[in-house]
């Protein structure tokens, strides 16, 4: 028997936040491979490079590109309104914006740094879920995947871990509220992921020697805590995100799936 996989996102409208690089970019390319109409959002103008790349690699893929700051509720609302104005619906929302800004033991964080971590890694997901939900509920369908982290049990980034713990909780609670109205909400707890050097840095300041040591401790602990004793690839994260977003996961909601080589976070 020949097994032919149909494009899972044919004619579906998918919003991907933080699409300019890394995991978000990988998700956007995979969704394009599988037939989606894309709304790509990032704070960085580099997201326009991805649009140009898609124009040559996937000329049939309709793409709307926006720059916006997902830490701002109004920008998240503007993004979802633009998606609906352009494509008429939102079937899939991938909340990918996040990432630790600092790496150090908790006692070394300043109060304003703790707030910045929560703004970066909790609020974009909270705001975007809130902004997309009315459209999905009106449609009676939708699939949200939040990109969380195994860093909910990890060293040298307590504020980030706390923010991602919030993402896991909002995933479970929102799924509870929306399951009978056609909207699924899931998350992946991303493990350590190899990626090319970041063109958009999470923190533009040069690392001190001490900060390099603290960052290396994160890498060592991440490898040690995984059963496979290695980092994963962007493709390994993308596969899980896209599965949860697709109708193949139609009986799965409220779940945070660890994708960390056996590290459950
Ligand atoms: N890379 C890893 O090892 C790893 C591990 C665990 C979890 N994660 C999670 O996976 C997700 C993606 O990680 P990554 O390493 O690909 O990220 P990255 O830092 O490489 O890229 C993040 C993208 O989001 C954009 N962005 C950041 N803040 C934004 C904002 N306020 N508004 C709009 N766009 C914004 C950036 O410009 C960038 O394009 C994050 O949520 C991160 O916490 C990553």
UniProtKB/TrEMBL annotation:
PANTHER family referenced in this protein's UniProt entry, alphabetically: OXIDOREDUCTASE, SHORT-CHAIN DEHYDROGENASES/REDUCTASES FAMILY MEMBER
GO biological process entries: fatty acid elongation
PROSITE patterns linked to this entry: ADH_SHORT (PS00061)
Gene3D superfamilies: NAD(P)-binding Rossmann-like Domain
InterPro entries for this protein: BenD, NAD(P)-bd_dom_sf, Sc_DH/Rdtase_CS, SDR_fam
Pfam families: adh_short (PF00106)
SUPFAM superfamilies assigned: NAD(P)-binding Rossmann-fold domains
GO molecular function list: oxidoreductase activity, acting on the CH-OH group of donors, NAD or NADP as acceptor
This protein's name: 1,2-dihydroxycyclohexa-3,5-diene-1-carboxylate dehydrogenase
Organism: Giesbergeria anulus
């Amino acid at each position: 028997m020949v097994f032919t996989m149909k494009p899972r996102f044919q004619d579906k409208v998918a919003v991907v936040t933080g699409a300019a690089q890394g995991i978000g970019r990988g998700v956007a390319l995979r969704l394009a491979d599988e037939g989606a109409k894309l709304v790509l959002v990032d704070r960085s103008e580099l997201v326009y490079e991805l649009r140009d790349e898609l124009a040559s690699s996937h000329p049939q893929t309709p793409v709307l590109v926006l720059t916006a700051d997902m830490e701002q509720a109004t920008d998240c609302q503007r993004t979802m309104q633009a998606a609906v104005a352009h494509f008429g619906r939102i079937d899939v929302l991938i909340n990918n914006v996040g990432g630790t800004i600092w790496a150090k033991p908790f006692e070394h964080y300043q109060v304003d740094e703790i707030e910045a971590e929560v703004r970066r890694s909790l609020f974009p997901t909270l705001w975007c879920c809130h902004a997309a939900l009315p459209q999905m509920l009106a449609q009676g369908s939708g699939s949200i995947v939040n990109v969380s982290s195994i860093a909910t049990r990890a060293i040298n980034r307590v504020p980030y871990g706390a923010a991602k713990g919030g993402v896991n909780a909002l995933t479970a609670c929102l799924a509870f509220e929306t399951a009978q109205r056609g909207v699924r909400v899931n998350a992946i707890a991303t493990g350590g992921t190899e990626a090319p050097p970041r063109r958009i840095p999470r923190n533009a300041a040069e690392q001190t020697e001490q900060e390099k040591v603290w960052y290396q401790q994160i890498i060592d602990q991440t490898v040690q805590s995984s059963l496979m004793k290695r980092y994963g690839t962007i493709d390994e994260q993308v596969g899980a995100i896209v599965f949860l977003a697709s109708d193949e996961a139609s009986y799965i909601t409220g779940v945070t799936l660890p994708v960390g080589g056996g590290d459950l976070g």
